[in-house]
Specification:
Elements: H1 2-11, E1 54-60, E2 78-83, E3 88-95, E4 98-109, E5 112-117, E6 120-126, E7 139-145, E8 149-158, E9 161-166, E10 171-178, H2 180-189, H3 193-209
Antiparallel strand pairs: 1-2, 1-10, 2-3, 3-4, 4-5, 4-6, 5-8, 6-7, 8-9, 9-10
């Protein structure tokens, strides 16, 4: 029984963390719920305008309920995608008090949505030392360079919500609110936006020198 539970946990480990250095997927640190049938939604043409200013929850399809709502029963198995009006997006992965953020651009190819992730991943990690040393900083913010990643999605509807179905994967992104500008303000307040913007400037300067 112990071996069976371990196999389930390992098979559903996501590949997204900055620490793993792999393609974006939220980390799953608890066993996923029992498998259920996937929604049989009709694919729809990709309309980039319909994505602008939208925020999507992102996770494994087993957390997607029959009423088209994500129900996450773990601390580290959910992420967010926010689409901006300049064809850019923000990806946020929460894990308890920690946060990983990546940005990139989105484009259309043969009626599919492509997300092009930049190499930089900015992490905000809780400093547990401040629980015994009040002079210690609360959080560390670190930069990690990863391999640039492209994720491909088909677009469908789940009830009246836009559903992004990742190609060759069991991960989904479901529309749940408007307000990508709120996400931008949030990462600015957390001190993460500054790191992302510096990376963009440095990259542009490097290309100019080349």
């Amino acid at each position: 029984m112990h071996q069976s539970s371990l196999l389930i946990l390992v098979s559903f480990l996501f590949l997204l963390s900055c620490k793993e250095g792999k393609s974006p997927k939220p980390q799953l640190k608890e066993t996923a719920p029992k498998a259920k049938k996937e929604h049989k939604d009709q694919r729809t043409p990709v309309d980039p305008v319909s994505l602008i200013n939208k925020v999507f929850e992102y996770g494994h399809q087993q957390h997607l309920t029959d009423s088209c709502v994500f129900l996450f029963e773990c601390d580290c198995c959910a992420a967010e995608l926010a689409f901006n009006d300049d064809s850019s997006f923000i990806y946020l992965e929460h894990c308890m008090s920690d946060l990983d953020v990546r940005i990139g651009s989105f484009s259309l190819h043969e009626n599919q949505l492509h997300l092009h992730f930049d190499a930089l991943c900015v992490s905000k990690e809780y400093n547990y030392e401040n629980e015994v040393d009040t002079s210690a900083v609360d959080y560390f913010i670190t930069d990690t360079l990863l391999k640039q990643t492209i994720l491909v999605f088909e677009v469908a509807k789940c009830n009246d919500k836009t559903l992004l179905i990742e190609e060759n994967s069991e991960y989904r992104a479901l529309e749940y609110s408007t307000g990508s500008s709120d996400v931008l303000s949030y990462i600015e307040q957390e001190g993460i936006l500054e790191h992302l913007q510096k990376s963009k400037v440095n990259s542009a300067n490097d290309q100019h020198r080349d």
